[in-house]
Amino acid sequence: MARKKIALIGGGQIGGVLAQLAALRELGDVVLFDIVEGLPQGKCLDIAEASPIDGFDVELKGTNDYKDIAGADVVIVTAGLPRKPGMSRDDLIEVNSKIIASVGEGIKQYAPNSFVIVISNPLDAMVTLLQRITGFPYNRVIGQAGVLDSARFEAFIAWELGVSVKDVTAMTLGGHGDDMVPLVRYASVKGIPVLELLERKYKDKAKAKEVMEAMVKRTRGAGGEVVALLKTGSAFYSPASAAISMAESILKDQKRVLPTCCFLQGEYGVKGYYVGVPAVLGSNGVENILEFALDAEEQAMMDKSVAAVKSLVDSLK
Ligand code: A3D
């Protein structure tokens, strides 16, 4: 059986980490594309020269030519500008729309059978645009945001409760913006509700609620927290890890349930928009969208987040 092939469009901060992670996990041969000459070639050579140390057997090719992505099974898109301190993700829509339009054409022409995972911001709009340009079926074009937003929420819970991050399950729904919906009621440590554990820790219901609200707020602003510290760009290690877990689930048909920016056709009361929801990712891409009952408060937060996505997407030219 031929090795799988992963094409990475955008060889910047996230693209470089994606290439390294894909190689370390031997997901398949890696092609890293960027418009800057030498950048993807240099990064791939650098990573490949670590292969005898780390012991991975995959090919890494840096390129400025879309032809080289031919035959890719999965394409991960990070082309586009990241935000700087003081900017919102939505401020990137104009400049990144032009970039995504050209990337979409390249993928459509050279990797017409691929599954595409978009990371470029503003995420919900960029994945919508890329699907429109490629015309690929919705199950083959998805966005990464929820895996990362959920991981941030899980990390904050684990740190607060002094338990392993491996034993925390928590999820965010909705758009990848400040209105995202971290689901408090479903957050648990091995099935034990986090709110219950906080109440036991603080022996005070009001304090437990306050601590939970602070974690929700930090989750919503977590991308901005990193931007403010870095000053020159945005998070790149964690978004790469998040997208690789999605690619791996598709390439290995793992059928993992991952919060994914998917095209909704009535689920959660949303029709015709890409929004973050839990999805089963396997060899057919999005194989199922898991729906569950939201209470009135959660539904109201979801509606607000979806409204923000709609107004952004409707502003696409
Ligand atoms: P950066 O390090 O600037 O890399 C972007 C790369 O895109 C650069 O190397 C550019 O040369 C390249 N590029 C520009 N135009 C094109 C083009 N037309 N074709 C191909 N490549 C091009 O940014 P980054 O890697 O830090 O971030 C990439 C994107 O991801 C940004 O839009 C970020 O806002 C976004 N991002 C999303 C998340 C999510 O969780 C959704 C998290 C963090 C960053």
From TrEMBL:
Q: Which residues form a coiled coil?
A: none
Residue stretches making up the Lactate/malate dehydrogenase C-terminal domain: 148-313
Alphabetical list of InterPro entries matching this protein: L-lactate/malate_DH, Lactate/malate_DH_C, Lactate/malate_DH_N, Lactate_DH/Glyco_Ohase_4_C, Malate_DH_type3, NAD(P)-bd_dom_sf
Question: Which superkingdom?
Answer: Bacteria
* Catalytic activity from the UniProt record: (S)-malate + NAD(+) = oxaloacetate + NADH + H(+)
Question: Pfam families under this entry?
Answer: Ldh_1_C, Ldh_1_N
- CDD domains found in the cross-reference section: LDH-like_MDH
Sequence similarity: Belongs to the LDH/MDH superfamily. MDH type 3 family.
Task: Show the HAMAP family listed in the entry.
Answer: Malate_dehydrog_3
| Entry protein name | Malate dehydrogenase
Species lineage: Bacteria, Pseudomonadati, Thermodesulfobacteriota, Desulfuromonadia, Geobacterales
